[in-house]
Design brief:
heterodimer, A: mainly alpha, 36% helix, B: alpha+beta, Arc Repressor Mutant, subunit A, 3 domains, 15 helices, 40% helix, 20% strand, elongated
């Protein structure tokens, strides 16, 4: 199996140098080859695992709790005004 | 060549929970931007989402009301994409194993009942809201809406015309509102609709290539956007072209759909099971309990209104379009109002007065029993239908009872034969020319005489008596 590093980088919004592309490409491919090996195991009668903990139905009641202060929420953003997160213009 | 459209709708409905789907932040609409967020819904590292059990209950309710099979085992999935209103870089949604599948609802178009299949209903979180500044270099993000619970209700491609699509949306909205799981406000965005549309020559089995139309945010636009898109696709095909599979945006100002090309890089959402949330198992016992708690739904109520109250289909349909309207009607009937009379007053004067003030029936200043009381006064002959119109409007505006208004304004109907005869004689004496013409065969002049007498008697004459006396006197 061969993976397109450019494609994965694009999905992750990463720009890679030629050198990085080669390095990550070979690393990703070795991971995929390892996965290929797993494919050799017969899993016909095995339920796929999506969670390792055998728990279900962890829920909360619909009761409001206090939200955090706006200034605390905004302070982690690279850019913000006093009310909003600010981002480069989104072209619709 | 004749063409047929094939339409499927994806409806997003905001659930009426008090808190978000995975955290305890309030879902209140219209609050100051970014005041209803917390580390969970703004995607801070290390936090864990926990499912709101009300959201699950609402989704199951909706599934049961739309004849779906409720999954006893269901789970969430991550849908990965980048957008400024999506703080985590993924949306928690459902992919495989949605909570509800294989349902249907029934619509009535041109008197025919048609089943529209529901492929699935799944739960997911809403994104935030982007605000664009005209001409500026920035956009602004409000995350109050991020994490508000949504249901995505996906229909089968069973819809063939824009009209059917509107009926489907109306029925779905009515069901959601009856259940109290969504307020159904398309303009405010709590009910949103995307449409998948293709066209094919009539009789062809295979589907054509479909386009997805987004941003349809009112009932009027459902019809307009679909009509436009169907015409556009037929034109493309007839000119020998090919419809491209793409996303198009409905522009309500221009009345057209426009391609979102450029933004339209192939999406690859890389769905995978959400590791932060454990699966959901729903026991049959809970499903049964929810089923037993469902209210009477619009279709059943409509049929009952027609059979129990002897109402015409049209009345029954309109009165059951909203639960609150149906409740008001039943309360008025229970208070003694004759069903068809109650229906007429509600669909006529009451709706007109409410619409004038842009009010819903929940805010109606008039009580159902007050209408019933007024109808009783009409039955007894205390007031005529004409006077009742005045009384009704007065009741609505002042909140006073009919009887008080009738007394206060001296609106009691005059059924005194002598008094009516006197007024009739006067009108006849004053209008010799019209009397001649009437006797010469212009019978429609009767209305003129009725009007004149009513005017003289301030509208209080008993109409039946007036008619009889007039006819008698005019033929002498």
């Amino acid at each position: 199996m061969k993976i397109s590093v450019e494609y994965v980088a694009k999905l992750a919004r990463l720009s890679l140098s030629e050198k990085e592309r080669e390095l990550f490409g070979s690393q990703l491919n070795s991971i995929l080859n390892y996965m290929e090996k797993l494919n050799e195991v017969d899993t016909k009668d095995v339920e796929p695992t999506s969670h390792v903990i055998s728990l279900s139905n962890v829920m909360r009641d619909d009761i409001p709790v206090r939200s955090i202060k706006r200034e605390d929420a905004l302070m982690n953003a690279p850019e913000h005004t006093d009310k909003f997160y600010r981002v480069p213009k989104i072209i619709e | 060549m004749k063409y047929e459209a094939v339409i499927g709708l994806e409806v997003h409905a905001q659930m009426l929970t008090d808190t978000k789907i995975f955290c305890g932040c309030s879902t209140k609409f219209g609050s100051e931007p970014n005041t209803q967020t917390c580390p969970v819904c703004i995607g801070m590292p290390g936090v864990l989402p926990v499912l709101n059990n009300k959201a699950l209950e609402f989704a199951i309710k909706t599934g049961l009301a739309t004849n779906c099979k409720i999954s006893t085992y269901s789970r969430f999935a991550r849908k990965n994409y980048f957008y400024p209103d999506l703080p985590k870089g993924y949306q928690i949604s459902q992919y495989e194993l949605p909570i509800c599948e294989h349902g249907f609802i029934e619509i009535i178009v041109d008197g025919e009942v048609k089943k529209i299949g529901i492929t699935r209903i799944h739960m997911e979180e809403d994104a935030g809201k982007n605000i664009h500044e005209d001409g500026g270099n920035y956009s602004f993000v409000d995350l109050n809406r991020a994490g508000v619970p949504l249901m995505e209700i996906v229909s089968e491609p069973d819809i063939r015309t824009p009209k059917e699509a509107v009926e489907y949306m109306k029925k779905l909205r009515a069901i959601l509102r009856y259940l109290g799981v969504c307020d159904g406000n398309m303009e405010q965005g709590s009910l949103r609709c995307d449409a998948n549309i293709s066209v094919r020559p009539l009789g062809q089995k295979e589907y054509g290539t479909r386009a997805e139309v987004k941003n349809i945010n009112s009932f009027k636009f459902v019809e307009k956007a679909l009509e436009y898109e169907i015409k556009r696709q037929i034109k493309v095909v007839e000119e020998g072209g090919k419809v491209i599979q793409e996303t198009r945006l409905w522009d309500s100002n221009k009345g057209i759909t426009e391609s979102m090309r450029g933004k339209e890089e192939a999406h690859d959402y890389r769905y995978f099971p959400e590791p932060d949330l454990v699966p959901i198992t729903v026991e049959q016992k809970w499903i049964d309990e929810i089923k037993a708690s469902l209210p009477e739904l619009p279709d059943i109520k409509r049929e009952r209104f027609a059979s129990e109250f002897g109402l015409p289909e049209y009345d029954a349909d309109l009165l059951t379009s909203e639960k609150s309207i149906a409740d008001w009607f039943e309360a008025a009937v229970k208070a003694g109002g004759q069903p068809k009379a109650v229906s007429n007053w509600m669909m006529g004067d009451l709706m007109r007065l409410l619409n004038e003030e842009n009010k819903t029936i929940e805010k109606c200043p008039l009580k159902p029993s007050q209408l019933a009381d007024m109808l009783r006064l009409m039955d007894k002959g205390t007031i005529s239908g004409k006077i009742a119109k005045t009384v009704f409007e007065n009741m609505y505006k002042t909140g006073k009872d009919a009887e008080a208004i009738v007394k206060e304004k001296g609106l009691v109907q005059v059924s005194d034969e002598g008094a009516i005869e006197k007024a009739v004689d006067e009108v006849i004496a004053k209008n010799p020319k019209e009397v001649e013409r009437y006797k010469g065969g212009e019978e429609k002049l009767l209305g003129f005489f009725v009007g004149q007498v009513m005017k003289a008697m301030k509208g209080k004459a008993n109409p039946q008596m007036l008619n009889e006396i007039l006819k008698k006197k005019l033929s002498q």
